[in-house]
């Protein structure tokens, strides 16, 4: 027997691990991200059925955020977030880069005024008058 098949309890499908580690709410979202090339294992694009073990390095890109992590443990069940965070270790540069991006987003969001949602009847009339007036002149 080979050493790779020594303990199947130390291996799990990539999509299941991403779900259990709480990177995605559902396995279907994890599968879509993997198929879309947003997840790399040890620098290679993989399929959702790829078996991962502790020691594998993952690159996860979700929206504009990204993580560079190392798998520390395997858990086949989805547990609370505090326990899920113990399944991986994020590199320091990855964490700092992500925190900086979140901080920039927060500052940018504070500079943009909040919209009130749908225009009121009065707002719609003003928009309509403005656009009708603008069309007549040009």
From TrEMBL:
Keyword RNA-binding, does the record have it? yes
Pfam families reported for this sequence: S4
* Gene3D superfamilies for this protein: RNA-binding S4 domain
Q: Which GO terms describe its molecular function?
A: DNA binding; ribosomal large subunit binding; single-stranded RNA binding
RNA-binding S4 domain sequence ranges: 12-73
Q: Keywords, A to Z?
A: DNA-binding, RNA-binding
InterPro entries to which the protein is assigned, alphabetical: HSP15 (IPR025708), S4_RNA-bd (IPR002942), S4_RNA-bd_sf (IPR036986)
UniProt superkingdom: Bacteria
Indicate yes or no for the key word RNA-binding: yes
Provide a GO biological process annotation.
Answer: cellular response to heat
The ranges of region (Disordered) come to 107-138
Give the record's family classification: Belongs to the HSP15 family.
What protein does this entry describe?
Answer: Heat shock protein 15
Organism of derivation: Allochromatium palmeri
């Amino acid at each position: 027997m080979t050493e790779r098949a020594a303990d199947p309890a130390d291996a799990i499908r990539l999509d299941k691990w991403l779900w259990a580690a709480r990177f995605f709410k559902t396995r279907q979202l994890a599968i879509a991200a993997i198929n879309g090339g947003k997840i790399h294992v040890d620098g290679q694009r993989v399929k959702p059925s790829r078996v991962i073990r502790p020691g594998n390095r993952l690159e996860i890109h979700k929206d504009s955020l990204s993580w560079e992590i190392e798998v520390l443990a395997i858990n086949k069940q989805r547990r609370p977030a505090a326990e899920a965070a113990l399944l991986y270790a994020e590199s320091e540069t990855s964490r700092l880069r992500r925190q900086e991006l979140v901080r920039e987003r927060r500052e940018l969001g504070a500079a943009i005024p909040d919209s009130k949602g749908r225009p009121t009847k009065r707002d719609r009339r003003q928009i309509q008058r403005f656009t009708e007036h603008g069309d007549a002149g040009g």
